[in-house]
Design goal:
Layout (H helix, E strand, L loop, with lengths): L1 H10 L10 H8 L13 H34 L4 H16 L9 H16 L9 H33 L2 H7 L4 H14 L1 H14 L4 H13 L3 H14 L6 H12 L3 H17 L8 H16 L3 H14 L4 H13 L3 H11 L6 H12 L11 H5 L4
Protein backbone atom coordinates (compact mmCIF):
# COMPACT_ATOMS: atom_id res chain seq x y z
CA UNK A 1 0.00 0.00 0.00
CA UNK A 2 2.90 2.38 0.71
CA UNK A 3 4.31 1.76 -2.75
CA UNK A 4 0.92 2.40 -4.36
CA UNK A 5 0.59 5.67 -2.44
CA UNK A 6 4.08 6.84 -3.42
CA UNK A 7 3.52 5.95 -7.08
CA UNK A 8 0.23 7.86 -6.96
CA UNK A 9 2.04 10.89 -5.51
CA UNK A 10 4.72 10.75 -8.21
CA UNK A 11 2.00 10.75 -10.90
CA UNK A 12 0.19 13.77 -9.42
CA UNK A 13 2.53 15.48 -6.93
CA UNK A 14 1.05 18.97 -6.56
CA UNK A 15 -2.60 18.44 -5.62
CA UNK A 16 -2.93 14.65 -5.45
CA UNK A 17 -5.82 12.55 -6.73
CA UNK A 18 -8.44 13.92 -4.33
CA UNK A 19 -9.28 13.20 -0.72
CA UNK A 20 -10.74 9.75 -0.11
CA UNK A 21 -9.65 8.34 -3.47
CA UNK A 22 -6.87 5.95 -2.45
CA UNK A 23 -9.11 2.91 -2.98
CA UNK A 24 -9.34 4.00 -6.63
CA UNK A 25 -5.75 5.17 -7.10
CA UNK A 26 -4.39 1.93 -5.63
CA UNK A 27 -6.02 -0.16 -8.36
CA UNK A 28 -3.90 1.49 -11.02
CA UNK A 29 -0.64 0.69 -9.26
CA UNK A 30 -1.58 -2.66 -7.75
CA UNK A 31 0.95 -5.41 -8.56
CA UNK A 32 -0.88 -8.38 -7.03
CA UNK A 33 -4.49 -9.53 -7.35
CA UNK A 34 -4.69 -10.29 -3.62
CA UNK A 35 -4.68 -7.53 -1.06
CA UNK A 36 -6.80 -4.40 -1.34
CA UNK A 37 -7.58 -1.59 1.07
CA UNK A 38 -9.35 1.76 1.25
CA UNK A 39 -6.33 3.12 3.10
CA UNK A 40 -2.54 3.22 2.79
CA UNK A 41 -1.85 1.95 6.33
CA UNK A 42 0.21 5.13 6.67
CA UNK A 43 -1.80 8.32 7.16
CA UNK A 44 1.08 10.56 6.09
CA UNK A 45 1.50 8.75 2.77
CA UNK A 46 -2.26 8.90 2.32
CA UNK A 47 -2.24 12.71 2.66
CA UNK A 48 0.68 12.83 0.21
CA UNK A 49 -1.09 10.70 -2.43
CA UNK A 50 -4.59 12.13 -2.05
CA UNK A 51 -3.91 15.82 -1.32
CA UNK A 52 -0.46 16.46 -2.80
CA UNK A 53 2.76 18.00 -1.57
CA UNK A 54 1.32 21.38 -0.46
CA UNK A 55 -1.29 19.82 1.81
CA UNK A 56 1.29 17.35 3.10
CA UNK A 57 3.76 20.10 4.01
CA UNK A 58 1.01 22.13 5.68
CA UNK A 59 -0.13 19.17 7.73
CA UNK A 60 3.40 18.18 8.74
CA UNK A 61 4.21 21.79 9.66
CA UNK A 62 1.14 21.86 11.86
CA UNK A 63 2.22 18.67 13.65
CA UNK A 64 5.90 19.59 14.00
CA UNK A 65 5.24 23.10 15.31
CA UNK A 66 2.60 21.81 17.71
CA UNK A 67 4.92 19.14 19.10
CA UNK A 68 7.74 21.63 19.41
CA UNK A 69 5.62 24.00 21.51
CA UNK A 70 4.20 21.21 23.70
CA UNK A 71 7.68 19.79 24.30
CA UNK A 72 8.85 23.16 25.57
CA UNK A 73 5.98 23.14 28.10
CA UNK A 74 6.68 19.54 29.14
CA UNK A 75 10.36 20.31 29.78
CA UNK A 76 9.37 23.09 32.24
CA UNK A 77 7.02 20.84 34.23
CA UNK A 78 8.20 17.23 34.00
CA UNK A 79 6.21 16.15 37.09
CA UNK A 80 2.80 17.11 35.73
CA UNK A 81 0.98 13.79 35.02
CA UNK A 82 -1.52 15.37 32.63
CA UNK A 83 1.25 16.88 30.56
CA UNK A 84 3.30 13.69 30.44
CA UNK A 85 0.31 11.43 29.76
CA UNK A 86 -1.15 13.74 27.14
CA UNK A 87 2.17 14.18 25.37
CA UNK A 88 2.74 10.41 25.40
CA UNK A 89 -0.75 9.81 24.00
CA UNK A 90 -0.43 12.19 21.05
CA UNK A 91 3.10 10.95 20.35
CA UNK A 92 1.93 7.31 20.33
CA UNK A 93 -1.01 8.19 18.07
CA UNK A 94 1.29 10.04 15.67
CA UNK A 95 3.77 7.16 15.52
CA UNK A 96 1.03 4.56 15.10
CA UNK A 97 -0.31 6.50 12.13
CA UNK A 98 2.89 5.59 10.30
CA UNK A 99 1.68 1.98 10.28
CA UNK A 100 -2.11 2.18 10.34
CA UNK A 101 -5.11 4.30 9.39
CA UNK A 102 -6.61 5.33 12.76
CA UNK A 103 -6.80 8.98 11.74
CA UNK A 104 -9.05 8.13 8.80
CA UNK A 105 -11.85 7.69 11.33
CA UNK A 106 -13.29 11.06 12.45
CA UNK A 107 -13.87 9.97 16.06
CA UNK A 108 -10.22 8.99 16.49
CA UNK A 109 -8.77 12.01 14.71
CA UNK A 110 -11.03 14.46 16.56
CA UNK A 111 -9.97 12.91 19.88
CA UNK A 112 -6.34 13.41 18.87
CA UNK A 113 -6.99 17.04 17.89
CA UNK A 114 -8.95 17.68 21.09
CA UNK A 115 -6.07 16.43 23.24
CA UNK A 116 -3.55 18.32 21.13
CA UNK A 117 -5.55 21.55 21.49
CA UNK A 118 -5.78 21.13 25.27
CA UNK A 119 -2.02 20.70 25.54
CA UNK A 120 -1.41 23.74 23.34
CA UNK A 121 -3.77 25.80 25.51
CA UNK A 122 -1.95 25.05 28.77
CA UNK A 123 -0.48 28.12 30.41
CA UNK A 124 2.97 28.48 28.88
CA UNK A 125 4.08 31.42 31.01
CA UNK A 126 7.76 32.02 30.64
CA UNK A 127 7.89 30.82 27.06
CA UNK A 128 8.49 33.26 24.26
CA UNK A 129 5.47 34.02 22.13
CA UNK A 130 7.31 32.97 19.04
CA UNK A 131 6.32 32.85 15.40
CA UNK A 132 5.88 29.03 15.26
CA UNK A 133 3.00 29.16 17.76
CA UNK A 134 1.23 31.83 15.73
CA UNK A 135 1.68 29.65 12.64
CA UNK A 136 0.09 26.73 14.48
CA UNK A 137 -2.97 28.84 15.26
CA UNK A 138 -3.30 29.99 11.67
CA UNK A 139 -2.86 26.46 10.37
CA UNK A 140 -5.62 25.28 12.71
CA UNK A 141 -7.91 28.01 11.34
CA UNK A 142 -7.12 27.01 7.75
CA UNK A 143 -7.76 23.33 8.50
CA UNK A 144 -11.04 24.19 10.21
CA UNK A 145 -12.21 26.23 7.20
CA UNK A 146 -11.28 23.43 4.79
CA UNK A 147 -13.13 20.85 6.90
CA UNK A 148 -16.17 23.16 7.05
CA UNK A 149 -16.24 23.71 3.27
CA UNK A 150 -15.65 20.03 2.52
CA UNK A 151 -18.41 19.04 4.92
CA UNK A 152 -20.97 21.34 3.29
CA UNK A 153 -20.02 20.08 -0.17
CA UNK A 154 -20.59 16.50 0.99
CA UNK A 155 -23.95 17.45 2.52
CA UNK A 156 -25.00 19.16 -0.72
CA UNK A 157 -23.95 16.08 -2.68
CA UNK A 158 -25.98 13.89 -0.33
CA UNK A 159 -29.02 16.16 -0.78
CA UNK A 160 -28.92 15.96 -4.58
CA UNK A 161 -28.26 12.21 -4.42
CA UNK A 162 -31.42 11.65 -2.39
CA UNK A 163 -33.39 13.84 -4.81
CA UNK A 164 -32.16 11.71 -7.71
CA UNK A 165 -30.27 14.57 -9.37
CA UNK A 166 -27.19 12.49 -10.12
CA UNK A 167 -25.54 14.98 -12.46
CA UNK A 168 -25.28 17.58 -9.67
CA UNK A 169 -24.26 14.90 -7.19
CA UNK A 170 -21.42 13.85 -9.45
CA UNK A 171 -20.28 17.45 -9.96
CA UNK A 172 -20.16 18.09 -6.20
CA UNK A 173 -19.01 14.78 -4.81
CA UNK A 174 -17.68 12.29 -7.38
CA UNK A 175 -16.29 9.89 -4.78
CA UNK A 176 -16.46 7.23 -3.54
CA UNK A 177 -16.59 4.99 -6.60
CA UNK A 178 -19.24 2.66 -5.18
CA UNK A 179 -21.78 5.48 -4.95
CA UNK A 180 -20.93 6.69 -8.44
CA UNK A 181 -21.57 3.23 -9.88
CA UNK A 182 -24.89 3.05 -8.05
CA UNK A 183 -25.92 6.35 -9.62
CA UNK A 184 -24.95 5.05 -13.04
CA UNK A 185 -26.83 1.79 -12.44
CA UNK A 186 -30.02 3.69 -11.64
CA UNK A 187 -29.74 5.83 -14.77
CA UNK A 188 -29.08 2.79 -16.97
CA UNK A 189 -32.25 1.20 -15.59
CA UNK A 190 -34.33 4.25 -16.54
CA UNK A 191 -32.76 5.31 -19.82
CA UNK A 192 -29.80 3.65 -21.53
CA UNK A 193 -28.77 6.79 -23.44
CA UNK A 194 -28.70 8.92 -20.28
CA UNK A 195 -26.97 6.09 -18.44
CA UNK A 196 -24.34 5.92 -21.18
CA UNK A 197 -23.65 9.66 -20.85
CA UNK A 198 -23.33 9.30 -17.10
CA UNK A 199 -21.09 6.24 -17.52
CA UNK A 200 -18.73 8.08 -19.83
CA UNK A 201 -18.68 11.02 -17.42
CA UNK A 202 -17.80 8.64 -14.58
CA UNK A 203 -14.97 7.10 -16.59
CA UNK A 204 -13.64 10.56 -17.50
CA UNK A 205 -13.45 11.39 -13.77
CA UNK A 206 -11.62 8.18 -12.97
CA UNK A 207 -9.65 7.24 -16.06
CA UNK A 208 -7.07 5.34 -14.04
CA UNK A 209 -9.59 3.15 -12.23
CA UNK A 210 -9.94 -0.18 -14.08
CA UNK A 211 -13.09 -1.11 -12.15
CA UNK A 212 -14.94 1.86 -13.69
CA UNK A 213 -13.95 0.79 -17.18
CA UNK A 214 -15.12 -2.79 -16.84
CA UNK A 215 -18.29 -1.60 -15.09
CA UNK A 216 -19.17 0.40 -18.22
CA UNK A 217 -17.96 -2.46 -20.44
CA UNK A 218 -20.46 -4.77 -18.72
CA UNK A 219 -23.28 -2.32 -19.49
CA UNK A 220 -22.38 -2.28 -23.18
CA UNK A 221 -22.00 -6.06 -23.24
CA UNK A 222 -25.48 -6.72 -21.87
CA UNK A 223 -26.86 -4.15 -24.32
CA UNK A 224 -25.30 -6.12 -27.18
CA UNK A 225 -22.80 -3.39 -28.10
CA UNK A 226 -19.79 -5.69 -28.31
CA UNK A 227 -17.37 -3.28 -29.99
CA UNK A 228 -17.79 -0.66 -27.27
CA UNK A 229 -17.71 -3.34 -24.60
CA UNK A 230 -14.39 -4.65 -25.94
CA UNK A 231 -12.97 -1.13 -25.99
CA UNK A 232 -13.63 -0.55 -22.28
CA UNK A 233 -12.54 -4.05 -21.22
CA UNK A 234 -9.27 -3.42 -23.04
CA UNK A 235 -8.82 -0.09 -21.23
CA UNK A 236 -9.40 -1.76 -17.87
CA UNK A 237 -6.73 -4.34 -18.65
CA UNK A 238 -4.25 -1.69 -19.83
CA UNK A 239 -4.52 0.28 -16.58
CA UNK A 240 -3.94 -2.77 -14.40
CA UNK A 241 -3.20 -6.07 -16.19
CA UNK A 242 -3.81 -8.21 -13.09
CA UNK A 243 -6.55 -6.31 -11.29
CA UNK A 244 -9.21 -8.75 -12.50
CA UNK A 245 -7.96 -11.71 -14.54
CA UNK A 246 -11.51 -12.74 -15.51
CA UNK A 247 -11.62 -9.77 -17.85
CA UNK A 248 -9.29 -11.66 -20.19
CA UNK A 249 -11.74 -14.50 -20.65
CA UNK A 250 -14.65 -12.06 -21.06
CA UNK A 251 -12.80 -10.01 -23.65
CA UNK A 252 -11.53 -13.16 -25.36
CA UNK A 253 -15.11 -14.38 -25.83
CA UNK A 254 -16.12 -11.01 -27.26
CA UNK A 255 -13.24 -11.09 -29.75
CA UNK A 256 -14.34 -14.59 -30.73
CA UNK A 257 -17.92 -13.39 -31.31
CA UNK A 258 -16.59 -10.51 -33.40
CA UNK A 259 -14.37 -12.86 -35.40
CA UNK A 260 -11.17 -11.18 -34.17
CA UNK A 261 -9.03 -14.27 -33.70
CA UNK A 262 -5.72 -12.42 -33.92
CA UNK A 263 -6.73 -9.90 -31.22
CA UNK A 264 -7.83 -12.77 -28.99
CA UNK A 265 -4.49 -14.55 -29.39
CA UNK A 266 -2.55 -11.35 -28.59
CA UNK A 267 -4.74 -10.78 -25.53
CA UNK A 268 -4.20 -14.28 -24.13
CA UNK A 269 -0.47 -14.10 -24.86
CA UNK A 270 -0.31 -10.82 -22.93
CA UNK A 271 -2.20 -12.45 -20.04
CA UNK A 272 0.19 -15.39 -19.95
CA UNK A 273 3.24 -13.12 -19.94
CA UNK A 274 1.89 -11.08 -17.02
CA UNK A 275 1.13 -14.22 -15.05
CA UNK A 276 4.69 -15.43 -15.50
CA UNK A 277 6.14 -12.08 -14.37
CA UNK A 278 4.03 -11.92 -11.21
CA UNK A 279 3.99 -14.21 -8.17
CA UNK A 280 0.39 -15.29 -8.73
CA UNK A 281 1.27 -18.73 -10.07
CA UNK A 282 3.14 -19.45 -6.84
CA UNK A 283 -0.06 -19.29 -4.80
CA UNK A 284 -2.99 -21.70 -4.77
CA UNK A 285 -6.04 -20.19 -6.43
CA UNK A 286 -8.85 -22.46 -7.62
CA UNK A 287 -10.78 -19.60 -9.24
CA UNK A 288 -7.79 -18.64 -11.38
CA UNK A 289 -7.16 -22.31 -12.25
CA UNK A 290 -10.70 -22.64 -13.60
CA UNK A 291 -10.31 -19.57 -15.80
CA UNK A 292 -6.99 -20.82 -17.14
CA UNK A 293 -8.58 -24.21 -17.83
CA UNK A 294 -11.41 -22.66 -19.85
CA UNK A 295 -8.99 -20.54 -21.89
CA UNK A 296 -7.09 -23.74 -22.71
CA UNK A 297 -10.38 -25.42 -23.57
CA UNK A 298 -11.10 -22.70 -26.14
CA UNK A 299 -7.86 -23.54 -27.93
CA UNK A 300 -8.66 -27.26 -27.68
CA UNK A 301 -11.95 -26.71 -29.52
CA UNK A 302 -10.01 -24.87 -32.23
CA UNK A 303 -7.66 -27.84 -32.61
CA UNK A 304 -4.68 -25.96 -31.15
CA UNK A 305 -3.57 -28.52 -28.58
CA UNK A 306 -0.14 -26.99 -28.00
CA UNK A 307 -1.67 -23.75 -26.76
CA UNK A 308 -3.99 -25.81 -24.56
CA UNK A 309 -0.99 -27.57 -23.00
CA UNK A 310 0.61 -24.25 -21.96
CA UNK A 311 -2.58 -23.10 -20.24
CA UNK A 312 -3.44 -26.42 -18.59
CA UNK A 313 0.09 -26.71 -17.19
CA UNK A 314 -0.58 -23.49 -15.29
CA UNK A 315 -3.74 -24.97 -13.75
CA UNK A 316 -1.70 -27.68 -12.04
CA UNK A 317 0.51 -24.97 -10.55
CA UNK A 318 -2.27 -22.92 -8.95
CA UNK A 319 -4.60 -25.81 -8.05
CA UNK A 320 -2.33 -28.80 -7.32
CA UNK A 321 -4.80 -30.30 -4.84
CA UNK A 322 -7.37 -31.08 -7.55
CA UNK A 323 -6.69 -34.26 -9.53
CA UNK A 324 -8.99 -33.29 -12.42
CA UNK A 325 -6.49 -30.73 -13.74
CA UNK A 326 -3.64 -33.26 -13.63
CA UNK A 327 -5.64 -36.04 -15.30
CA UNK A 328 -7.01 -33.84 -18.08
CA UNK A 329 -3.48 -32.60 -18.82
CA UNK A 330 -2.22 -36.19 -18.87
CA UNK A 331 -5.05 -37.13 -21.28
CA UNK A 332 -4.03 -34.25 -23.53
CA UNK A 333 -0.41 -35.44 -23.58
CA UNK A 334 -1.58 -38.96 -24.49
CA UNK A 335 -3.61 -37.55 -27.38
CA UNK A 336 -0.35 -35.99 -28.59
CA UNK A 337 1.48 -39.36 -28.21
CA UNK A 338 3.62 -38.03 -25.36
CA UNK A 339 3.25 -40.84 -22.85
CA UNK A 340 6.33 -39.89 -20.82
CA UNK A 341 4.97 -36.42 -20.12
CA UNK A 342 1.57 -37.84 -19.20
CA UNK A 343 3.27 -40.15 -16.72
CA UNK A 344 5.32 -37.26 -15.28
CA UNK A 345 2.17 -35.19 -14.70
CA UNK A 346 0.46 -38.05 -12.87
CA UNK A 347 3.57 -38.74 -10.79
CA UNK A 348 3.77 -35.09 -9.73
CA UNK A 349 0.15 -35.39 -8.61
CA UNK A 350 1.15 -38.12 -6.12
CA UNK A 351 3.03 -35.62 -3.96
CA UNK A 352 -0.27 -34.12 -2.81
CA UNK A 353 -2.44 -35.98 -0.33
CA UNK A 354 -5.96 -35.39 -1.64
CA UNK A 355 -5.56 -36.19 -5.37
CA UNK A 356 -3.08 -39.02 -4.76
CA UNK A 357 -5.53 -41.94 -4.94
CA UNK A 358 -7.23 -40.67 -8.09
CA UNK A 359 -3.92 -40.08 -9.89
CA UNK A 360 -2.62 -43.48 -8.78
CA UNK A 361 -5.61 -45.10 -10.45
CA UNK A 362 -4.75 -43.42 -13.76
CA UNK A 363 -1.09 -44.35 -13.45
CA UNK A 364 -2.13 -47.98 -13.20
CA UNK A 365 -4.36 -47.59 -16.25
CA UNK A 366 -1.45 -46.00 -18.09
CA UNK A 367 0.87 -48.90 -17.19
CA UNK A 368 -1.73 -51.37 -18.51
CA UNK A 369 -2.09 -49.47 -21.78
CA UNK A 370 -5.74 -48.62 -21.13
CA UNK A 371 -7.28 -45.61 -22.84
CA UNK A 372 -8.07 -42.42 -20.93
CA UNK A 373 -11.16 -40.29 -21.34
CA UNK A 374 -10.68 -37.54 -23.96
CA UNK A 375 -9.20 -34.17 -22.89
CA UNK A 376 -11.93 -31.99 -21.40
CA UNK A 377 -13.78 -34.97 -19.89
CA UNK A 378 -13.50 -33.53 -16.37
CA UNK A 379 -14.92 -30.12 -17.31
CA UNK A 380 -18.11 -30.53 -15.27
CA UNK A 381 -16.15 -31.54 -12.18
CA UNK A 382 -13.81 -28.57 -12.60
CA UNK A 383 -16.73 -26.21 -13.05
CA UNK A 384 -18.12 -27.42 -9.70
CA UNK A 385 -14.89 -26.63 -7.80
CA UNK A 386 -15.72 -23.88 -5.28
CA UNK A 387 -13.91 -20.55 -5.76
Amino acid sequence: YWQQALEGFINRPLVGFGWGTFEIVALRFQKETAGWSNFTHNFYFQVLAEAGIFAFLSFMSFLVLSFRHIWQIVKRDTKNPFLLGGFGAILASSLHSFLDYDWNFPAVFLTFLFLLANLLAINSQGLKRNQPLRLVKWLMVVLAVLVFVFGWIQLAGEYFYRKGDYQKTLALSPWPAVRVRKMGDKLFEKDFIQGEKMGQRIVSLSRQDPSMHYWLADKYYFAGQLEKSAQYYQKAIEYNPLDNWRLYQKLGKIYKQLGKQEEKDVLYQFFGQNLEKSKILQKENEALAKDLYFIGEEYLKEGRERETVSWWKKTTQVAPQWSYFHIDLASLYLSLDEQNRAEAVLNSCLTFYYPREHCQEYLERLSKGEDFEPPGYWRAKILAIPD
